[in-house]
Amino acid sequence: MNKLIEREKITSKKEKPDPSSLGFGKYFTDYMFVMDYEEEKGWHHPRLTPYAPIMLDPSSSVFHYGQAVFEGLKAYRTEDGRVLLFRPEQNIKRLNRSCQRMSMPPLDEELVLEALTQLVELEKEWVPREKGTSLYIRPFVIATEPSLGVKASKNYTFMIVLSPVGSYYGDQLQPINIYVEDEFVRAVNGGVGNAKTSGNYAASLQAQQKANELGYDQVLWLDAIEKKYAEEVGSMNIFFVINGEVVTPALSGSILSGITRASAIELIRSWGIPVREERISIDDIYAASARGELTEVFGTGTAAVVTPVGELNIHGRTVIVNDREIGEISKKLYQTITDIQLGKVKDPFRWTVEV
Amino acid sequence: MNKLIEREKITSKKEKPDPSSLGFGKYFTDYMFVMDYEEEKGWHHPRLTPYAPIMLDPSSSVFHYGQAVFEGLKAYRTEDGRVLLFRPEQNIKRLNRSCQRMSMPPLDEELVLEALTQLVELEKEWVPREKGTSLYIRPFVIATEPSLGVKASKNYTFMIVLSPVGSYYGDQLQPINIYVEDEFVRAVNGGVGNAKTSGNYAASLQAQQKANELGYDQVLWLDAIEKKYAEEVGSMNIFFVINGEVVTPALSGSILSGITRASAIELIRSWGIPVREERISIDDIYAASARGELTEVFGTGTAAVVTPVGELNIHGRTVIVNDREIGEISKKLYQTITDIQLGKVKDPFRWTVEV
Ligand SMILES: Cc1ncc(COP(=O)(O)O)c(C=O)c1O
Ligand SMILES: Cc1ncc(COP(=O)(O)O)c(C=O)c1O
C-alpha cells in the first residue's frame, strides 16, 4: 500500500504557531493528502503534497450545487510522546455514508486510513503537547466538474488537511448556555441531516448568530416537523440525565450519528447506568427540570469532547441545570474519554490506533 | 460607475462552440466578472477579467460549510440583433435575499446590474442566434475564509460567468414525465428552501437519480411535514390547470420564489384567467385528474422557460395529463414569454432591459 501513495517534498517548513494561540482550524501543517476522481478512471493519483491553494474552474459544481462532504477527527499526543487516533475507521465509514447520500463516489476505506495515517506520521511534530490541544484531521471531498447542469458531478477531489487546535469552546469543561431554537430548523427526515455535508452547516449559521446575539453559546435544534423533539447541537449530540438515567435523541435520520455519541453510550452503559435512545420532547425536559429531576445535560463531539450545559432557554423560559456546575456523569465521561484518547488508561474497547 | 470596474484584456479569444452542441452550462465565454469581500474593506475591486481557474485555500469555508448562493438568468438575441435581459433586477434582489438567509454580506444591487450589463456587453458576440438558445448568466457568491471554525466566513468572492446554452430539456415544449417524490424531501419551513443556495441542489440529487432510474425526467417535491402538498420541481415552479382555473403552490417559505413563476402569474391574470396561489395537496390533483378536470400541468423556470408535464407518478399511480399533449395555456404562456424575451412583441410590463 505504502508505495501507492506518491510523495512530493516540501522545500521549507512553516513555523509552528504558539500553542496558546491555536484556536480552531486557523493553522495548517506543511503537507496535505490529495486524490482525484474521474468517471472513467475512478479514484486515482493518491499523493502527499505541500499544503497549498488549489485551482478550480469557476463553474466547478461544488461552488454551485454544493456536493461536498467532510469528516473531523483528532490525533492526540500521549504523555510518552506517542500519537493516537480515536476510532478513525468510524469516521471513514461515515464519510462513505455521507458520499452515498450526496450521490458521490465511495472511497476505498483502507486507502483512506492508510493516507490519513501516513499524513499524520509525516506531520507528527505538528501534534501539540499542551493540555486540551490536538491535531485536528479534516478529510473532505468536493465536486469539481466544470459544468452548470444540476446533476451529480463526474469529477471529485478528496483531500485531507491537518490543523493543530486548542479546545473548541475555549476553556475546557466550562458549562455552556444553549438556546432551544424554535423558529429555524436544521434538517428534516428525508433530507440530508444525517450526512456530514456542507449545506447543513451553512443552513445553521443564521440561528447560531441569533443565539449568540441573545447571549447563548450554541443552538439546540428541534425536529422540523413538530418543533418539539430535541435533535442535536451545532456540532455535538446532546444527552440528558433524568432521574439517574441517561437519555439521548435516537438516530432519527435527521441528526448526525456522532462517534463521540456512540462511544459515550457504550462507556456509560459499561458503568451500569442505563442509556435510552429515543424521541425526547423539549417540554418533557422542561417538566423534568421543574420536578428537579433533570440533573445533567451535556453535549458530545470530536471538537467539543464532552461539554456540560449550564443553562437552556426553552421557549423563552430559562432552565438552570445542576446550578451551572459540572455533573458527575459529564465529568467522569470527559475524564474517561480524554484518558483513553491520550493513552493514560487502558483502552478496553480498542478505540485508539497508534500512528 | 463605468470607471469603477477595472478591465483586464484577454490575449486570445476562444473559438465559439457549434450552436447545435451547446447543451447547458458546458462552455464559458472569454471574460468573467469578479469582486472580493473582506470584513474590513467590504466589497471591493470589481473587475472584468479573463475567464480562468481561481485559487482557493483548501480550508476555504465554501468547501466545508457550504456558504454559497447563486442566480441564473439569460441574455436573449432578438431577430434584429439586439441583446435583451429579462427582469435582471429581480434576480439581483433574490441574490441578496439568499445572501441574507445564508449570513452572507449583501451586494450593491446597482453595481451588480452594472457589472452584469458590462460583462454581457463585452461578450455580446457570444449571445447565440439559433432558436431556443441564449446566453446563460450565472452570478454567484462563495465563502473563502481559510478557517475550519463553523461560523459565517469573513471573506467572500462574487463572480459572474457566462455560458451560451441550448434548451435545458433538449427539444423544446416536449411534455416531460414527473415523479412525485414521497420519500426524500428537498426543504422544510424554517430551513433554507427559499434561498438559492448550493446545498439545496446537492440535497436533491439522490431523488433526481431515483426518478431517472424509474424513467422520469424530474422530481416533484412534496412538503417535508405532511408529504402531501406540492412544492416545486428540480429547477422549476409548478402550475396546475383545474376546471379552467390555474393554481400554483403558494410561497410557503420552503420553495424558491421563481421569477418566471411571478411573470407567468401576472401574464395569465392579464388574460382574465384566475390564478390561485395556495397549498395544493397531491391527492386533490389525483382526484381532479380522475374527474377529468386536470387539463394542464406545467413548470416554469429560467432554464426551462415553460415546460408542459405529460405524466405524473403519484404514489405509484400514473396520471396522464391532456393525453400528453401541450395544453392551451402552456402553449400561449410559452409563446408570450419567449416573444417578450426575444423582443418580438411589445413588452407591456417593461420586463426586458436592452444591453
Ligand atoms: C452536526 C453535528 N452533530 C454532531 C457531531 C458530533 O459527531 P462526532 O462525535 O463524530 O464528532 C458533529 C461533528 O463533529 C456535527 O457536526
Ligand atoms: C429550485 C428552483 N425552483 C424554481 C426555479 C425557477 O426560478 P426562476 O423562474 O427564477 O428561474 C429555480 C431556478 O431556476 C430553481 O432552482
From TrEMBL, chains A, B:
One annotated GO molecular function: branched-chain-amino-acid transaminase activity
Taxonomic superkingdom: Bacteria
Enzyme Commission identifier(s): 2.6.1.42
Reactions this protein catalyses: L-leucine + 2-oxoglutarate = 4-methyl-2-oxopentanoate + L-glutamate; L-isoleucine + 2-oxoglutarate = (S)-3-methyl-2-oxopentanoate + L-glutamate; L-valine + 2-oxoglutarate = 3-methyl-2-oxobutanoate + L-glutamate
Pathway connected to this protein: Amino-acid biosynthesis; L-isoleucine biosynthesis; L-isoleucine from 2-oxobutanoate: step 4/4; Amino-acid biosynthesis; L-valine biosynthesis; L-valine from pyruvate: step 4/4; Amino-acid biosynthesis; L-leucine biosynthesis; L-leucine from 3-methyl-2-oxobutanoate: step 4/4
Obligatory cofactor(s): pyridoxal 5'-phosphate
Parts forming coiled coils: none
Pfam family for this entry, one: Aminotran_4
Keywords: Amino-acid biosynthesis, Aminotransferase, Branched-chain amino acid biosynthesis, Pyridoxal phosphate, Transferase
Family recorded in the similarity comment: Belongs to the class-IV pyridoxal-phosphate-dependent aminotransferase family.
The protein's name: Branched-chain-amino-acid aminotransferase
Organism classification: Bacteria, Bacillati, Bacillota, Bacilli, Bacillales
